[in-house]
Amino acid sequence: MSLAAYCVICCRRIRTSAPPPQSTASWRDINPFSTADVEDHECAVWLLLRQSQSGDRTARLQAVQEMSQTHHWHDYQYRIIAQACDLRTLIGLARSKESDLRFFLPPPPLPSLKEDTCIEEELRQLLASLPQTELDECIQYFTSLALNESSQSLAAQKGGLWCFGGNGLPYAESFGEVPSATVEMFCLEALVKHSEIPTHCDEIEANGGLQLLQRLYQLHKDCPKIQRNIMRIIGNMALNEHLHSTIVRSGWVSILAEAMKSPRIMEASHAARTLANLDRETTREKYQDGVYVLHPQYRTTWLARDCPALRIISVEYDTSLSDWRTRCPMERKSIAFRSNELLRKLRAAGVGDRPVIWVSHSMGGLLVKKMLLEASKKPEMSTVINNTRGIIFYSVPHHGSHLAEYSVNIRYLLFPSLEVKELSKDSPALKTLQNDFLEFAKDRNFQVLNFVETLPTYIGSMIKLHVVPVESADLGIGDLIPVDVDHLNICKPKKKDAFLYQRTLQFICETLAKDLED
Ligand SMILES: *[C@@H]1O[C@H](CO)[C@@H](O)[C@H](O)[C@H]1NC(C)=O
Ligand SMILES: *[C@@H]1O[C@H](CO)[C@@H](O)[C@H](O)[C@H]1NC(C)=O
């Protein structure tokens, strides 16, 4: 079939405003010379559209890739694709780096708010509509907190939204002044928890949650913290494939495509996670709550797949420090509990299918050790062990910290969700973990690199403490490198040429090079 002849059909069809061709049967009887007055672009639009609905996956992928690389069309031509493409194609376009944003129609108008209700009230009603039975303690806590707050303090808090952004030190500096979080935040925290349960996702959808959350998302463009929680909910809902078409129809893909281009890394990561969960065409992995792919955030094509490509996954096991007051008191979990949960989520994201290098900070390093030990006991997780090549530890308290001796508030500030007594200097759990890990690691060929802080960490203007002393960060395997930074900055090199960054990069490159040699 020649391209010219094929084009004719497409263009003819537009002119007679007939529906797009369903089969190729009729193209033969059309005179190919009538292409003379036809714009090539227009042909390309319909050709690609048709190819994007092909039964052949490779053809579909190629069509999406070509669409995404097209930048010279007229607005209306992008709109043709936007209106006529299927769900799979739209998601593919949103996951293609080059895609023009004109592929994404503005979300459909949102239903207007009911008379006499404000958005907080609608959010509260959505939360109240969800099943409140058979929830774990933590979801119950969040839900009751949100419902209590809204009835008690709605009037008092009408003054507006208190948006606490960012994590870490800015909040620590105003330690003692606890922000008055709003009803919206409480409700969202509760909804995030509910959205981890598939049946609750169905309820959220059935009760108009996709639209309500979208309205809230648009209202809070200046509040990344609120937007992140909303995106966590949508990302969790996207784990359920039967909800994909409603998520797409409610206009979320346009919002996600735009968020992907955000210079704010967390905003882009949340969008990338949600889109990856929606993309069942090229993605097998699922990204559960708290697991993000930082790179590559876009679809890599079948051309790139043969090249050794790095995937960088980040794990959020504590929410930011600014959350600490609203966090569930029952959720101060042991390292053992958290490591099992995390191992399961990482496996779902495909970790262990390829060589892995773990990069961990502080308590995260203890989790990595515990995860590897747990994985070594489970045959279905053995691939995680077999594929582990290296581990980097930034200020990990292998032998405990003095932290346990400090006040509860300070401990929560640094380790918001952990039983801190596990981290004390003579904690039996920590000793066992360290001994078991050394025993386990001695027969393996893991490359290990340890960094440790030498500067104290300031908390407010009054308190300074050396969170992890040099001797505590000594794993007993691999180099131990002291660096003149504090506990929070040790995992945040200031510039690309910083020693920390360069040394980390070198370790990763050397470890991967070794892998290629073997
Ligand atoms: C919500 O209010 C009820 C009744 O006043 C109370 O028993 C419950 O502890 C409150 N929940 C939270 C999380 O404060
Ligand atoms: C991992 O390595 C062990 C020992 O070499 C082997 O018995 C096991 O089958 C491997 N697991 C996988 C999933 O390849």
From TrEMBL:
Keywords (A to Z) from UniProt: Endoplasmic reticulum, Lipid biosynthesis, Lipid metabolism, Membrane, Mitochondrion, Phospholipid biosynthesis, Phospholipid metabolism, Transmembrane, Transmembrane helix
GO cellular component, one term: endoplasmic reticulum
InterPro entries xref list: AB_hydrolase_fold (IPR029058), ARM-like (IPR011989), ARM-type_fold (IPR016024), SERAC1 (IPR052374)
Highest taxon in the source lineage: Eukaryota
Family classification: Belongs to the SERAC1 family.
Organism: Suricata suricatta
Name this protein carries in UniProt: Protein SERAC1
Location within or outside the cell: Endoplasmic reticulum; Membrane; Mitochondrion
Gene behind this protein: SERAC1
Chief localisation class: endoplasmic reticulum
Biological processes, Gene Ontology terms: phospholipid biosynthetic process
Membrane topology: Single-pass membrane protein
